[in-house]
Design brief:
Elements lengths: L1 E2 L2 E2 L2 H18 L4 H18 L4 H25 L12 H5 L3 E9 L2 E6 L2 E6 L8 E8 L2 E6 L9
Parallel strand pairs: 5-7
Antiparallel strand pairs: 1-2, 3-4, 3-6, 4-5, 6-7
Helix pairs in contact: 1-2, 2-3
Length: about 160
Amino acid sequence: MEIGGIEISTEALWVIAGILLLITEMIAPGAYLMFIGGAALFTGLLGYALPLPLIAELAIFAASSVASVYVAKRWFEVYPILSSSPLLNSRIAQMVGQTVEVVEPIEGGTGRVKVGDSVWSVSGPDSDAGAKMRITGAEGNCLTVEPIEVLPPADG
């Protein structure tokens, strides 16, 4: 095969494609391009070892891609990648347990609370504005809250 006036074998193209996929995996990690890149490298190296027609190389690449992605999927199910901050991309999950102040009274089970510098819709027991509540979860983008039990003042 000739590309830009340079004679290059299909095996070399497989190796180059594999290396490019591995580099892409390093730039934008997602774990699966690595396995497809490995399949391309495998195809290229096998092509160097055995004289294979292009159709056989394509079949080997397809089969090794499917097999490697299947093995990777099974591997990550058994050994998941653990994060040091699993709630990083889940803003609502980060809010659970926070104490918030009711800014619009909760009437009929719905109202609004101030969380940080924003106001969120909530569902929970009826409460007056200014009451302190604790976030217990969310349904869509509506937080669920419960009242904080206030201790009576100590008799002194």
